[in-house]
Write a structure and sequence with these properties.
Elements: H1 2-19, H2 22-29, H3 33-39, H4 43-49, H5 54-65, H6 72-89, H7 91-99, H8 111-133, H9 142-163, H10 170-182
């Protein structure tokens, strides 16, 4: 199942949902086409599953980190750094997420969407905690801030995907994260 999802991620990332075929995914995974249907009911379910355990693993890791002694500003910096790292390392999953899943209405009804919401709830809780502790300002809507964060990361990723820009460096990611933090710091 995991091998199928890894291959599917790359194929969907390169060709999009319309250009990808189950037979190509099966061929690249070294299995029979029918084997894919043992794990996934349809090509669309496979697309939705491409995110696999990404957001589950991410949210689990971040929840463990947050059980420590970091203040909300340090927690948010960690969250944003981790998100930047995943967007760079998980190139195919990022491509599928941005170019395919966000445009697919069924994504918003799937378990995978609920998994992504866990991550965004962590950011929301962190910002709310920062407001309560005085680390973050009070005069902004958290939902707008979440859109700002998402847009910044997606814009950077789209530049790499669509315009063949270089991968973000640690310095450029850190600059973006510092700007996102400065936007709400008290």
């Amino acid at each position: 199942r995991r091998a199928i999802m890894e291959v599917a991620s790359e194929v969907f990332g390169k060709k999009g949902y319309g250009g990808a075929t189950i037979s190509e995914i099966a061929g690249k995974a070294g299995i029979a086409e029918a084997s894919i249907y043992q794990y996934f009911r349809s090509k669309e379910q496979l697309l939705l599953s491409v995110l696999g355990d990404w957001f589950i693993d991410l949210a689990d890791e971040l929840e463990r980190v947050f059980s420590g002694e970091l203040n909300p500003c340090e927690q948010l910096r960690y969250l944003l750094r981790r998100w930047a790292l995943d967007f760079q390392i998980r190139e195919w999953e990022t491509r599928v997420l941005i170019l395919e899943l966000y445009r697919n209405p069924k994504f918003y009804e799937s378990q995978e969407y609920l998994n992504t919401r866990r991550f965004w709830k962590l950011i929301r809780r962190t910002v709310e905690a920062g407001r309560q502790s005085g680390h973050f300002r009070q005069d902004f809507r958290i939902s707008y801030y979440l859109h700002l964060v998402q847009g910044a990361f997606e814009h950077e990723a789209l530049g790499r995907m669509m315009l063949s820009r270089k991968h973000a460096t640690i310095a450029s990611s850190e600059q973006m994260i510092n700007l996102l933090l400065r936007a709400i710091k008290a």
